[in-house]
C-alpha cells in the first residue's frame, strides 16, 4: 500500500501539467494574418483627341462651258478660295467677274449687276449666270491649258483696247474687243505664243487669267 502513494502523486502532477499546457495553448493568440496587398489604383484613360475632318484640298484650275441655250460662253478660273470669270457671246455681250470660293460654292460679282454662282466638283461646275439682264443656267467642265481665260490690253490709235478671250478645249475661241466702250468680236489669239500678239501694229500685253486675278474694272 505504501508504494501506491508516489505513483498517484506522479500521475496527478502529469495531469496538471497537461491541463496547464492546454490552457496556455488556448490563451495564446494566433499570429495575425498578413494584410492582403492593396490593389493598384485604376488607370484613368486620357480622353481621346477630338476627331476632325481634314479640309478639302484647295482647287486649282479652269472650268469652261456654255449656258444651257448657248447664249454665252462661260469660263471660271479657281485658285484656292478665290475665283475669276469671263462671260461673253463673241459679239457684244461680256462681263468680267471675281469673288470667292467657299467649299464647293462659288460666288462672283461683276459690274452692272453681273453675277455667277456655281457648285464645283472635281470635274465640273454647275450654276447660274446673270448677264445683260438675263439669268441663265450653265455647265462647265475642267479644262487644261491652253484652254482658259485670256486678257489683253493696249492703247491703239489713242483708244484703250481691252480684249477678252475664252479658249475652249477644242481650240475654238470666243472673245470680245472692248474699244473705249464699243464692243466687237476679238481677233484670233495664239495661246501658245502670247508674246507676239499685235493689234494693228501695236504690241498687246496678253496674260492668262488665274483664280483671284483682279479683272473687274475699278
Topology:
Elements: H1 4-27, E1 60-67, E2 73-79, E3 82-88, E4 94-102, E5 105-110, E6 115-120, E7 124-131, E8 134-143, E9 148-156, E10 159-167, E11 173-179, E12 182-185, E13 198-199, E14 202-203, E15 205-209
Antiparallel strand pairs: 1-2, 1-8, 2-3, 3-4, 4-5, 5-6, 6-7, 7-8, 9-10, 9-15, 10-11, 11-12, 13-14
What's the quick description here?
The protein has one helix spanning 4-27, and strands spanning 60-67, 73-79, 82-88, 94-102, 105-110, 115-120, 124-131, 134-143, 148-156, 159-167, 173-179, 182-185, 198-199, 202-203, 205-209.
Characteristics:
218 residues; mainly beta; 8-stranded antiparallel barrel; 5-stranded antiparallel sheet; 1 helix; 15 strands; 11% helix; 45% strand
Number of helices, where a helix is a run of at least 4 consecutive DSSP H or I residues: 1
Poorly predicted segments: 6-13, 15-23
Largest sheet: 8 strands, antiparallel, barrel
Strand content: over 45%
Question: What is the percent of helical residues?
Answer: 10-25%
Mean pLDDT level: 85
Please count the beta strands (DSSP E, at least 2 residues each).
15
Radius of gyration: 47 Å
Trace the largest sheet across and list its strands. Answer: 1-2-3-4-5-6-7-8
The SSE order reads: HEEEEEEEEEEEEEEE
Biased composition (Pro residues): 47-57
Region (Disordered): 31-66
